[in-house]
Structure formats: C-alpha cells, structure tokens
Amino acid sequence: MVIFNNTTSSSSNFLLTAFPGLELVHVWISIPVCCLYTVAFLGNSMILFIIITERSLHKPMYYFLSMLSAVDLCLTITTLPTVLRVLWFQAQEISIKACLIQMFLVHTFSFLESSVLVAMAFDRFMAICNPLKYAVILTDTMSVVIALTVCIRQVIFSSPCLVALINEPFHGGQELSHPFCYYPDVIKFSYSKTLLGTFWGMFLQLYLNGTDLLFILFSYILILRTVLSTVAPKKQQKALSTCVCHICAVTVFYVPMISLSLAHRLFSSTPRVICSTLANIYLLLPPVLNPIIYSLKTKVIRQAMTRMFQFKSLRGAKVRGLWGRWNGRGISYST
C-alpha cells in the first residue's frame, strides 16, 4: 500500500504526527475521530443554543455551563484542521509560527476550561452551603465579572510565553508527537531554551491548573461537610445530585490532562503512540462527554431539548401540510 506523504522537511517547519507506526490505517482511524469531532461540535453548539434561547436557563449555573461549551467548541475548532490534514492527506508540515499560535490557543483554552470548572464549583458551593446568599451574590452582573476575570487571567499568564517564544529559534524539520502543537513537545526543540520559555509552561501548569484543582477539591470538602450535616437523607441526595455533572466534568478534564503531563515530563521513555493517544483523549474527551453528561443528567436542559425537537417536528408537519394543500390547489386549478 502506498502512503501519500505531502511532507518536505524544512528548517522553518515542524512535522506533525497522528499515531506513529499506524500510518497505514490513518484513513480508518479518521472515521471514529471525525465522529467524535462531530459529536463535540453538535453537542456543544446545541447546549449553547438552548441556554441562549431558553429564558428559564438565564441563571449563573447555566451561564457557566455555556462558557464551558464555548471553550470546548473553541478547543475543538483549534485542533480540527491539523488533525484532519494529517489523518486524511498525510500533510504533516506546519510552520513554526503557526505551530506556536496553535499551541498558545490550545493551552489558553485548556487553562480557560480549568478556570470555568472552578467557577462552576463556586456556584455549587454557594447553592449548597449558602443558599440564602446565592441569589444576592451570584447575580447576572457578578457572573459577567467572573467570566471577564477568568478570561483576563488567561491572557495575562499565557501571553508572556507566546511573546517569548515567537522570536525564539527552533530546530526546524523536527517531528512532533501529536497532530497539533503541544508545549512540552515543542519546547524541547528550542535552541536557547531560555528560562522563561523552559519553565513558564511548567509554572502555568502547576500554578493555574494546580490551584484550580485545589480550589475545586476544597469546595467539595465544604459541600460534603454541609451535606453530611443535613439530617434528611432525601435532602442529602438532592444536594449531591446537583453536583454529579460537575464532578464528571472535572474528572473527564483533569485525569487525561495529568496523565499526558506525566507521560511527557516524568516518563520520557513512554512510547510515542501512547503519548499521541493520550493527547487526543485529553483534547477530545471533555468536548464530547460534557454535553452528553449535562443533557442526560440535567432535567431542565433535557426538557428544553425535548421541546426544541417537538417544535421542529411540529413545524415540519405544518410545512408539509401547507405544501400538500398548495399542491392540491394547483392540481384542481389545472384540471
């Protein structure tokens, strides 16, 4: 079998790889990958559309969920072009500057998702531990302030890394481990390996994701303490059930991220195909599963989806009925 490789190694380019050693079956691998991207795109778009159009969902909890869906959409769109290029056309080349921009976007949206999960944990903490103050503190204005703070925080911490690396000399023509640009994979090909370039990424990972995860864990310790102090078992079950979706979202995001970071930084002998698989799981699993989890476990969203599909089916039936009447009149006129 002939593999069409559209690669011409250049000192100003990097070479992307999808699943090293499995080039012969890239076309077949692309089928489930494309299905996952489609599910991620449609699922998050639907969540966003429902929250925007349904006035009953204009509440802080659903504002943060819409932010999560928007971030997942952006993350999906950021990696989709290079993943499909590699899998479909074996087009591995990417310019170093384009690679750095993609890397900046991937990590910015990844850190942004971590911060949104913190905002959602704060929302659950307020709803369960301070229900009387919930409506007073978490107003629409406060939700906007939290969203802006989260975005500004990412720009402030991520921009210096991009500025430091954009003019950094790199060993061109090197083969990366993933079909997209990932910081630990790219930085090892830097000539100078400056202090900012080498350690800033690790600092961001430990500081941003580390503090976010600690804040989420601390929030759930306080939530558990409050729930366990409640006498009525039904109230305990109801309170915990509101946290199930968020706990699933946190697990789906942090477990692949930590696994990939360990594979790159601590276990240098990890096979490249495993690193590539972990990277694809890390980027695809949250956008695919988050809308599924929230649509299945959140009754309000499930009901809104049902109403939307019922409205579309009724509108389709009316259009078909009107079309049939119009055709009937046309036939009677012609006769």
Q: Can you list the strand order of the major beta sheet?
A: 1-2
Estimated share of beta-strand residues? under 5%
H/E element order: EHHEHHHHHHHHH
CATH topology: Rhopdopsin 7-helix transmembrane proteins
CATH top level label: Mainly Alpha
Q: Round the mean pLDDT to the nearest integer and report it.
A: 83
The computed structural class is mainly alpha
User: What is the number of beta strands?
Assistant: 2
Task: Note the gap between the termini.
Answer: 63 Å
**Helix count, DSSP H or I runs of 4 or more residues:** 11
Query: Percent of residues in helical segments?
Result: over 70%
CATH superfamily: Rhodopsin 7-helix transmembrane proteins
Question: CATH architecture, please?
Answer: Up-down Bundle
The total tally of domains equals 1
Organism: Fukomys damarensis
Keywords: Cell membrane, G-protein coupled receptor, Membrane, Olfaction, Receptor, Sensory transduction, Transducer, Transmembrane, Transmembrane helix
Protein name: Olfactory receptor
GO molecular function: G protein-coupled receptor activity; olfactory receptor activity
Describe the fold and architecture.
- The structure is a single chain.
- This protein is mostly helical.
- It has a single domain (13-299), classed as Rhopdopsin 7-helix transmembrane proteins, CATH 1.20.1070.10.
- Helices cover 77% and strands 2% of the residues.
- It is built from eleven helices and two strands.
- The chain has a two-stranded antiparallel ribbon.
- The longest helix has 36 residues, at 299-334.
- The protein is globular.
- The N and C termini lie far apart (63 Å).
- Residues 1-8 and 331-335 have low confidence and may be disordered.
- The chain crosses the membrane at residues 25-51, 63-88, 100-122, 134-156, 206-227, 239-258, 278-296.
- It is a multi-pass membrane protein.
- It holds the Pfam family 7tm_4.
- Residues 43-294 form the G-protein coupled receptors family 1 profile domain.
